Amino acid sequence: MATAVKPDFDAVVVGAGFGGLVMLHRLRQHGFRARVLEAGSGIGGTWFWNRYPGARCDIESMEYSYQFSEELQQDWEWSERYATQPEILRYIEHVADRFDLRRDIQLDTRVNAAHWSHAESCWTIATDRQTVTARFLVMATGCLSSANIPDFPGRDSFAGKTYHTGRWPHGGVDFTGQRVAVIGTGSSAIQSIPLIAEQAAHLTVFQRTASFSIPAHNAPLDPEAVRKVKDDYAGFRAYNAAQAFGAHFSLPPVLAYGVDASERERVFEEHWQEGGLGFLSAFGDLLFDHKSNETAAEFVRAKIRGIVRDPTVAAKLSPKQVIGCKRLCVDTNYYATFNRPNVSLVDVSETPIEAITPRGVRVAGQEYAVDAIVFATGFDAMTGAVLAVDIRGTGGRSLREKWAAGPRTYLGVGTAGFPNLFLVTGPGSPSVLSNMVPAVEQHAAWIADCIGHLREHGFARIEADPAAEDAWVGHVNDVASLTVYPSCNSWYLGANVPGKPRVFMPYIGFPTYVAKCNEVAAKGYEGFALS
Ligand code: NA7
After folding, report:
1. How far apart are CA 266 and CA 261, in angstroms?
2. What's the gap in Å between 421 CA and the centre of ligand 1?
3. What's the DSSP call for residue 326?
4. What is the distance in A from the centroid of ligand 1 to the CA of 211?
5. Backbone angles phi, psi at 505, to 5 degrees
6. CA 166, CA 396: separation in Å to the nearest integer?
């Protein structure tokens, strides 16, 4: 690199989840000296922290895995259609051992600050253990890693135990005989509620917004189906990468109102029986047209009314918003759990939780006494973990300040004013609106190639150009505005965290995005300044 000062590392990667591990592997392939710093006491990121009962991925196992090694994807055997958290963590551990990644990963190390020095073209990274320097800083901190526990009055006064689904105790929790509160009804709640209900003496669920959930129909994988995928794994990956969400369901050309009501019903039923997130691909326009979307929403509401015996409870569980606008959930026995005599539902949409008291949760003057509270209240998504680090770029400007009105990036991978800073699946990239593992792999390969290009051409710095960034931010918003996504209070918009600016963060369209990244690279990193 064209600079006199030799930093400790070519690159420091923050986070040892799926993104950080493949980033390290790619950097090493280019011969770079890299170090991964990880706050947890183990690797795995999301799959290290989210150990709540029922935690599993709702992207199918055959897709939710790395593709950078054909041998790896041939050798690894997934057991179920949707892998559990322990199985995914075992897989990640296997990858780390197989590619000898651990020797460059430092655990139990929280990165507090990262400051850029223009004169030295390097980052100084302060952790709770030491300070290191690196030419490049790669934030692989995950989109859903900064736990959100709302600031309920009296939150710390509760006398019993509290848990957040994303910070679950390693030894598990035994709720036998206990009165338990679950606050929240997103994916984590929907996976854990049926299992907590089986154990607890009584479970009270506090719901602010009802969620749409599609049955998982989880089952052991059929060896014949696995063989078919493995016979042409590359072809399977290529097909998935060509779909809008980078996952194995394609949006058909048929529109919801292109068929009559009985055919529509038949198609929805077929997708319901198939199960999973692919439900939204029943028709090509469900995510683009509100009227079409309502047909799918109403189909699911009818299912809820069919499953839940008490009509009042069924009505409360029936979402009013657009389906798919908030992240669609995938469940095993979620709605049916509300038929159990030991489960009750408290609607807090109009009368919010007033307080956490020493004995429980108070809503509309009524106290619900419990022994334990589970906060299934989600995450400060996409920006929370990045902004938890005091990142300062050119002229000492902080990223928090730059993003005060919402995140601004070029391709979700770089941000103007912060040279040599890369974001793995940052805001403005498909990230959470695609299959995360291929998304992090694509970023890791692109970033490592980019750093390789800089070395090859004798550049010490790369920085997003403000004009390219403005154009990209505009484009991300333009694409989102063609869909139903901006129409509800989702974490995609930052709406779940009080005070967070409302900006639609993920980029919709995996194939278009990948093509754009490739084009930018092919044109010598167009839209970035190299120096
Ligand atoms: P989510 O999907 O963000 O769900 C969080 C839930 O917590 C959701 O139902 C929220 O209601 C609820 N919540 C948040 N704050 C409050 C307050 N103050 N009062 C009552 N209820 C509240 O997080 P998950 O962990 O379930 O899932 C995250 C992602 O992981 C998921 O989307 C998948 O991609 C995997 P709200 O809807 O905001 O009204």
Report:
1. 9
2. 30
3. S
4. 9
5. -95, -40
6. 33
d(CA 359, CA 367): 8
Q: In sequence order, what are the residues at sequence separation of 6 or more whose Cβ sits closer than 8 angstroms to the Cβ of residue 202?
A: 179, 180, 342, 343, 344
pLDDT digits 0-9 by tens, 276-297: 999 999 999 999 999 999 999 9
Q: Tell me the C-alpha distance between 494 and 232, whole Å.
A: 39
Distance 350 CA to ligand 1 centre (A): 16
The type of residue at 376 is: A
Sequence-separated (6 or more) residues with CB below 8 Å from residue 241:
438, 510, 511, 514
CA-to-CA distance for 149 and 155, rounded, in angstroms?
A: 9
In sign, the C-alpha dihedral spanning 239, 245, 247, 252 is negative
CB 211, CB 190: distance < 8 Å: yes
Q: Which atom of ligand 1 is nearest to the CA of 375?
A: 7
**Is residue 2 predicted with pLDDT exceeding 70?**
no
pLDDT in tens, 14-62: 999 999 999 999 999 999 999 999 999 999 999 999 999 999 999 999 9
520 touches 443 (CB < 8 A): no
| Plot region of 209 (φ>0 → left; ψ -120 to 50 → alpha; else → beta) | beta
Atom 25 of ligand 1 has which residue's CA nearest to it?
A: 378
Which residue among 187, 356, 363, 500 has the greatest number of ligand 1 atoms within 8 angstroms of its CB, and so is best to mutate?
Answer: 187
What lines the ligand 1 site, CB under 6 Å? 144, 150, 165, 183-189, 206, 208-209, 327, 348, 353, 376-378, 491, 496
d(CA 529, CA 500): 30
Q: Which amino acid is at 449?
A: D
- pTM summary value: 0.97
